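quick one, 71 residues, struct below
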Amino acid sequence: MKTKILDQIRGSEQGMLQLLEELVNIDSGADALAGINAVAQRIGAFLEVLGFTVEYLETDGAPVQLLARKA
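---
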């Protein structure tokens, strides 16, 4: 079991590093609402591929919040 998990992690390492690079290159400081929203959208897209149901909770003047659920 441990070997199977480690093999899966190693197999997805490059994709995870690419996702991390995308995320850190988005200007998402506390005053960058558009950037924060872009990060939420990118993470949401990633989670949808993994089978999560994704919902974006929006409030005027505040960053979007991401709600992800998996049955």
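The chain is about 55% helix and 15% strand.
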